[in-house]
Amino acid sequence: MADEDLYQYFKIEAREIVADLSRDILGLEKDGAGAEPLARLLRQAHTLKGAARVVRLPRIAEIAHAMEDALAPHRGSLDAVSKDQIGRLLQQVDIISSEISALDPPPQPGTQSRPAALEPFERVRVGVAEMDALLSGVSETAVQLDGIRRGIEVVREVEDRLAALQQQLTDAKPGARLHETVEEMRLALQHARQGLGMRADSTEREVAEVRGNIDRLRLLPTSLLFPALERAVRDAAEMLGRQVVFHTSGREQRLESHVLSALGEALSHLVRNAVAHGIENPQDRLARGKPACGEVSLKIERGADRIIFTCSDDGSGIDVDAVRRAAVDRGVMSAASAAALTPADALELIFTPGVTTSPSLNEVAGRGIGLEVVREVVGRFKGQVRVRSDLGIGTSVEIEVPVSLSSVRAILLAAGDLLIWIPLDAVHSALRLGVDAIVSLAGQSSLIFEGRAIPFIRLAETMGRPLTSGVDSRPHLATIVQAGAELLAVGVDRVIHASEVIVHPLPTAAGRVAMLAGAVFDAQGNPQLVLNPDALLEAAHAVSSQPMAAATPAPHILVIDDSLTSRVLLKSILETGGFKVDLAVSGEDAMAKASERHYSLFVCDVEMPGMNGFEFVARTREYDYLQGIPTVLVTTRGGADDRRRGAEAGARAYIVKGEFSKDSLLETVRMLVG
Fold first, then answer.
1. I need a surface site. Which of 25, 217, 261, 384 has the fewest CB within 10 A?
2. Tens-digit pLDDT profile for residues 71-100
3. What pTM did the predictor assign?
4. Domain 554-674 adopts which CATH fold?
5. Cα–Cα distance between 162 and 185 in angstroms, integer?
């Protein structure tokens, strides 16, 4: 068994224990020693020690044993655990956390490693990846549901034919028994259709309920943030000589794992900032008639489909004039412009890079970076951040983000042979285009909308689809898309319908495609792409108003793979390369599709149930209409014997799944089809 497999479950358990240890050690400092928290700490340390020994990690086992030794004398004792002891215990937790992080494989080149503090959000009692796999299984169930629907249509067609036959028999006036037989068949089919319809409706409701439950399970409790934030407040207070108590509420609220991880970073900056810039030292607080110990609080509330994080402190508040001076000193604006700002606008300057009111530089404050990170993280998740402050009384920063980014309301658009989704909240309106609606202004195709010219793009062209020659290919509809404060007209053929969809990230191997926000699965389990409105606007600014010549039809490729993940990956890569792509789930399915449409290339998996990839390539050489169509085998089998077998079968290229990249695949395909 590989080391990664050996440590997989240990890492899950150990990270949960580390989070619990941090919470309870900080609790000793806040609430004092008690029988119950001490018993929990001893049990956690003992469990971690035993687990580490099972997987042969003596360093972690030794540290956990040392924690047991430090805590054991306080069991049943009235003596409080000293501040120095708590500090040493927290340092030991940090070392254990680092040892656990060292078990992870190094990040792949070009990928960004995550801070260790965010790792617990990748796996909890139920892994997010396992939920995604279950969600994919439900999508495949939807494929079966679609089969039931098609069966109903077949039954309905037979019913129609029977009705026609019954009419013919009536006209011919045969014996009564034949009429009775036909009527019995008609009634049996009618009952079968009704039964299938009821079963399909029931299955559809059950699948929708399961999908909703899975989507909720993917949301993790915000309480996972609290131990790290409590530690951040404690460390900042200790470093700066402040006395601070940290209050939290709303631990039951839930968010998606990647949103929670990123917000953990932003909130960590906020609470440290509250200590460094807000909470005064004890002497100053007493002189101002305040308690020596300051308060920082984090309140988490649910509002409809959004969650609001409010970080407050009872410190000195923000000196708006000092913020203005800092902005001028950093060259952000002139003194006159700064003086003209309202207090609310001046407060917004604290989110500007480099603007800080801290008089000195230390590990906690003074670089003007923390709040810039907050604004960047919140913007990444389409959230909002607001700040309020009263000088001498305190400051409150409010972050508001969507509960779920993967489940969105979206509209399905059709442009040529392309079906693609766009988030509904980015759609301003839609209108029918007249013959002369599109004009050229300053080298840019534009649409006059509400008295002003806005950029216009044809969605099919922007997505690399060829123009259809010989017919009127002018878009008949424009979807008005809002990206930030700007509007954009997107020419499409049809607006099909709106629906709640679950957006899946594109596979890593597909690379970053700015135009796309992800993909959803249709009822057959096929991926459909989701547009990124901001990237659409950038594309519009880059489009020239010069008319384009009719493009050469894009090569049509058939992807054959029994794995849903592989089909999604290959389709997304090939479509971003400008190719038209159909999907087949088996060699037999591919042969049927190839008999109905001409393809320029086959991209085929090797290991599939029924006809495997080698057999499929050999079969294509037996039929005249398939000869000459190249096949690329894409497989996990990278041995020399497998490559030789592929070449003998007639494959033109052989790519190993674990080794190929987006660029290498597209280069191979272009070499074969031009």
1. 384
2. 888 876 667 788 888 889 999 999 998 898
3. 0.52
4. Rossmann fold (3.40.50)
5. 8
